[in-house]
User: Fold this.
Amino acid sequence: MEQKQTRSLSTVRDGETVRIARVEAGRGLNSRLASMGLVPNVQIKVVNNTHPGPFVIIVKGSKMMLGRGMAHKIMVI
Amino acid sequence: MVLKKITVAIAGNPNSGKTTIFNMLTGARQHVGNYPGVTVEKKKGLCRYKGYEITFVDLPGTYSLTAYSIEELIARNFIIDEQPDVVVDIVDASNIERNLYLATQLIEMNVPLVLAFNMSDIARQRGMVFDIKQLSILLQSPIVSTVASKGEGKPELLDAVIEIHLRRGQDTVQHTKRINYGDEIETELANIETLICTAEKQLMEKYGSRWLAVKLLEQDSDITEKIKNKEILDAVTASTEHLRGIFGDEPEIIMADRRYGFISGACQETIKTTVESRHSTSDMIDTVVTNRMLGLPIFLALMYLVFLLTFKVGKYPMEGLELFFGWAGRSIAGFWPIDSESWLRSLLVDGVIAGVGGVIVFLPNILLLFFVIALLEDSGYMARAAFVMDRLMHKIGLHGKSFIPMLIGFGCSVPAIIATRILENRRNRLTTIMVIPLMSCGARLTIYMLIIPAFFPEVWRGPMLWLIYLIGIVLAIICIKVLRLTVFKGETIPFVMELPPYRMPTFKSLCIHTWQRGWMYLRKAGTIILAISILLWVASSLPKPDSKSLKGLNSDQARQVSLKYSLVGRLGQAIEPALRPLGFDWKIGTALIGATAAKEVFVSQLAIVYAVGGEDAGEMTLRDKLQANYTPLTGFCIILFCLIYAPCVVTVVMTKQETGSWRWALFQFFGLTVLAYVITLIVYQIGSLFIG
Assistant:
């Protein structure tokens, strides 16, 4: 297992591509996110991270909007 | 020839073109209803093909089949309980991996499955080449390519459905389709399966042991509740702990990961992508439409355009219908001799035609409004509107997603309240439901359409309508803020939402959407409103004053006296003291009472009150009469009051149903009425200082 420094998705800048390490959310939410493609190791590209307001990412070819609170809970490498 | 009947469920992700496929297959032969118990829309449609009568059921759009949301549970339960003969999963071929996640769950449920790779033309444009034959072997299900927006692939899809149905009938022994989760998980699954086979025979027959085991390991709340046997539950807990120890994560996440692994394995072998430019055009539009500075102005301008269009273009057919109903009233009245006092004539002309006609006249406007809303929904802009509004909505303690039901509220509060189901958090949902009536619905549009042209010059009509909608929005924002600080305190919950690529909606599906909503409105006009019109006609004609008190009066004055003497007149007069500070007289009061049944009734009620009590019922339209009787300030106060006060009975009932208690419904009803009274009072009193 690689032990690189993880950080919150909300700190990732526009245009950067990262991988999900884990999602620190409740169980229901976790499987909801999984069904939308947000699972560990998946690549995500941050499209919009302008403060304040929603967060836009691209996962598996679809554009998704996250709430800021959600972005805090997703840990990435 | 007797048609063989089969039922086919249509499943698929949101934005996969599921509805377009459904429309392609069934045309206009659709029936919209609700799933029993819950108010999630259930669409059914018929299709005759090669000796079969196929009933298609459009399941709610979902990303998976967990027990997490009502929609997913409904889709899942429909497949399990109703046992459709075939399930068709609509897959967006241009976004294959994510879309196949739902397919893996359907494969696991072991249902007779056909995959429709929709929008295959877009996929081809993107340079994707599919080895359909190989992929269909790997996914253990037949695959059909379709382009629903152009009607391509319909016979192929229907053939595949029938073939799968027939094959299901022939095979007595079904081999179980499965996804391999890897040794560690498979061992635990096998353990649980063995226990299920001995202890929960009934459940096993219904759901299949493999699927039950998978769901239990995923800690699916719905299935876990069904298991009574303690041994199984203990085994599941032990397995979960064991797997958690190995992987350092919840089993359900590992299993989701394995499903994606299965998908990407299958795709790697069978799909070749030459170009990687999925979002080019959409991205370009998005940089403008969701721009920090431009996003909000563009949204507001679009909304303004929507209402301008509704008003300007809708004017012509509306005037035509007005002429028609005027002519119809006169023709029917012509069957009776002049000056006859026939009650039947009065019922038909003043009750039925004036009442229903007054409502149907606005159908063009409402159809136009629904058409544009459908256009915004189908093109993908609606999701961007939520994005743009999120910044603002966040400030008042809701998130952008709440804006969608509120936007639908401009069409009708009833579907808007149903649409709050997209909100996962109950507090957010309740807050949104409470303020939805402040979004001016199509029914209230009929009131504005009557009042605004009566009092304001041509150039002011568009801006006036825009202003009244804006007032509703601003009030809603204030109410949300207040509610969030008092009744619904608590944190806002984070959310996820897809921004689908922009798409050109097909004219056919726009028309179907518009027609379905317009039909709902017409049905209301034909049933509830007709009944209320007759009831109100009775109430405004009875009881009759005795003939002595009418002596010496001419016929106009006699009508006036009769009306004042009637039940409606009395009720209106009874509340007049309370309404006078708002600038309203008893006639308006009477119409307001009627409008709580359905907002459109305000118009028909006023029409009846004036037709019955008018001085010269000749060529003067209702607008002329209003203009002669009230000032523009009163006119404005009427639309202001109608905007805010008590929601219609249907909305009240819906709020009760969706919130689960009369408490919220009554809170909404009385809260809004008080708000309307206070605001209108302030506006009228201050306005009178300047004008009067």
